[in-house]
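Re: Re: ligand-bound prediction request (bumping)

Still looking for help on this. To restate: I need the protein modeled with adenine bound, output as structure tokens. Inputs repeated here so nobody has to scroll up.
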Amino acid sequence: MRISILTLFPEMFTGFLSSSIIKRAIEKKLVQFDIVNIRDFSKLNNQQVDDTPYGGGPGMVMMVEPVVEAIRSVKTEKSHIIFLTPSGKTFKESKAKEYARREHLILICGHYEGIDERILYYIDEEVSIGDYVLTGGELPSMVVADAVVRLIDGVIRKESIEEESFNEKGLDYPVFTKPPVFEGHEVPDVLISGNHKLIAAWREKSALEKTEKNRPDLLK
Ligand code: ADE
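Reply:
Sorry for the wait, this slipped through. Here it is.
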């Protein structure tokens, strides 16, 4: 899979691409990233990429032309083009699974007050990572890319994906590791019992309790 990220702040991706599971997935050639600087596609003086909004109002709006030229620099007939914006449809694990089957994702990061609405003629969908406003689409694009890359075959163990939250229904079961007692707080006895049937039953019950407590909406 290839993921192209279009941004005004390429430096924000350095840590993301050079750490942990994403780094390993790149090294194993399971995914290839290109970080494209939208500013390189400005045809104006001082590489300007934004301007004041028509109709007035606060802030600056990203101009459509440099973004469209940046899209064209990476787009093929296999590309799926996603614009990260708080006005998009909410990103879910089901979307991550759909994206993980695609050959090429183009993730567009907006900034300032957003991108000229005519960008909609050049993209496939608008996606939000949640009901809050961030300073730009860079973190959201990393959120989407991270959720997708870990689902690509060979990136992490299949069992990890099968057992986790948002699969089947409800949240994942609670996990514990050493030490058996920390500041008086004990690991549930059953997990140390070695009885796999009892452990499985405890995990199922605890996952349900956690879902009822934290995300009752998932059980409806
Ligand atoms: N850009 C700013 N806030 C965002 C959000 N919540 N989701 C996606 N893109 C954004």
